[in-house]
């Protein structure tokens, strides 16, 4: 990380977004843990790949609040700071719309999503794919891995080649894990 990158991170003003994300602490995940930690992990993945633009990092911290908190007050997100409208719009972009199927949602991000939406979705999926290592539901692992191949890898191909490589590796490792669990070929 360069000195310039460190200065950008220093001025990112993330604390209020982290505080807002704490509303996800009680939301459990299939792979264990809670949704709050998933938000932080998604942000860490972005930083790991050098994506340190403040709107993107802020959105990563709260990317699941609208979907996962019933009756979430959108004004809480839209009025935090001067970047809040942009953060809010990015969160909406990576939020599944009412009546939208999962394939429609992921295709929308792939086909018409902004660069930041595609990058955020890739970081989100990397976190989710890593969590699959703690899941024993073979049907869920298989479906999620296939979904990653069909929809997320094409998003990653557009967004970040290094994220693509990690996602492809995670797909391979999850298929090997499935093979070991159920005795199937990868």
Overview of the molecule:
- The chain is mainly alpha-helical and 186 residues long.
- The protein has one domain (3-182): Hypothetical protein af1432 (Orthogonal Bundle), CATH 1.10.3210.
- It is built from eleven helices and no strands.
- α2 runs parallel beside α4 (54-62) and α8 (102-112) packs parallel to α10.
- The mean pLDDT is 90.
Short description:
The chain has 186 residues and is mainly alpha-helical. It is built from 11 helices and no strands.
- In CATH, the homologous superfamily goes by the name Hypothetical protein af1432
Strand content: under 5%
Q: Report the structural category.
A: mainly alpha
What Rg do the Cα atoms give?
Answer: 16 Å
Biggest pleated sheet: none
CATH class: Mainly Alpha
Number of H- or I-type helical stretches: 11
Give the number of DSSP strands: 0
- Uncertain residue segments: none
| SSE series | HHHHHHHHHHH
Q: What count of structural domains?
A: 1
CATH topology: Hypothetical protein af1432
The CATH architecture term is Orthogonal Bundle
List keywords for this structure.
186 residues, mainly alpha, Hypothetical protein af1432, globular
Outline the secondary-structure elements.
Elements: H1 3-10, H2 15-21, H3 35-48, H4 54-62, H5 65-68, H6 74-78, H7 84-93, H8 102-112, H9 115-131, H10 138-159, H11 161-182
């Amino acid at each position: 990380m360069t000195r310039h990158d460190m200065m950008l991170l220093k001025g990112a003003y993330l604390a209020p977004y982290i505080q807002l994300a704490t509303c996800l602490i009680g939301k459990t995940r299939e792979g264990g843990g809670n949704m709050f930690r998933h938000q932080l992990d998604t942000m860490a993945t972005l930083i790991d790949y050098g994506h340190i633009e403040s709107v993107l990092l802020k959105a990563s911290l709260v990317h699941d609040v609208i979907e996962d908190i019933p009756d979430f007050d959108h004004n809480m997100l839209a009025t935090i700071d001067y970047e809040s409208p942009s953060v809010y719009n990015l969160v909406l972009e990576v939020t599944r719309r009412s009546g939208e199927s999962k394939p429609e949602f992921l295709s929308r991000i792939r086909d018409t999503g902004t660069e930041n939406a595609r990058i955020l979705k890739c970081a989100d999926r990397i976190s989710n794919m890593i969590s699959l290592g703690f899941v024993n539901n073979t049907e869920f692992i298989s479906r999620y891995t296939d979904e990653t191949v069909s929809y997320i890898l094409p998003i990653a191909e557009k967004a970040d080649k290094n994220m693509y490589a990690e996602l492809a590796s995670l797909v391979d490792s999850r298929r090997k894990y499935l093979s070991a669990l159920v005795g199937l070929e990868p």
